[in-house]
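Handoff note, outgoing to incoming analyst
You'll be picking up this chain. Sequence as last confirmed:
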Amino acid sequence: LKTYADMMKAPPDKWWFVNASMQETQDFGTALKVNVTAQSHTNSLIVIDRAGKIRGAFDFQQADKLKACRK
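Most recent structure output, in case you need it:
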């Protein structure tokens, strides 16, 4: 994830990229209404602010959508 963050020029004081166990990821996905399995994959980048509010979901492979989440 550090390589991805560096590639996206995500300032570490503003962005956190997290990694978790499969169970934690599934629990988190359930809370966000996103289906997560060992075989699933999504291009969605879910942005959550410091207050825990979901700010949006973006397709990280679409540059115009990614620009929107950088604001």
